[in-house]
Amino acid sequence: MSKQTDILVVAPHPDDIEFGAAGTIARLIQEGKQAVYALCTSGDKGTSDRSITPGQLAAIREKEQQAAAQVIGVREVVFLRYPDQGLEDSPELRKAIVRLIRRFRPETVMTCDPYHRYVYHRDHRIAGRVVLDAVFPFARDYHAYPELIQEGLEPHKVKELLFWGSEDINYRCDITAAFDLKLKALRCHESQVTELGIENLAPWLRNRCSEMAKGEPFELAEAFHRALLPP
Prior knowledge:
globular, Rossmann fold
């Protein structure tokens, strides 16, 4: 059954959204929008601690992601639970994302940029590319997945894509008023903040967002490549 929302955010791992887009999402929710998160993996490889199993880490990171989403005011979090470091540009994953798009019927889809060059997590490249293909043309076309029609999931046209982590930035969102929420949400990912060794998270994050706002009439920003879809 379809449930209309405004924003669908698809990420490879827990914490990717908080680093890349949580301030923008918080601002949009404050403006009356609704958002849903979809996590392709549960981040079960993201640790240097050899005493923890992948299953244990996945459970920890899902709880962290739920807490972070609650801080921002997200309506729902969906975990697809593909293996961390194991995403593939496969018909199965593409169909799963198309199902989400048709289920939630968002105007805006957000994900990581698949075209970031050189050193970049492979799951990010794959997730971004699969989401792009799912949005256009597969979610749009009636005959793409007839079995989804049988599930009551009619085609849907997304209006815009926002890619974080882009090297081709053409859109910056003012998150000055939402920065504290972004910081609070990121702190929910305690396992990853500890893993990254960021001792002073607040000034580090503020400096990062200040750099993204350079040349703009506001103090702090998140930066994206924005693509408009055919009507």
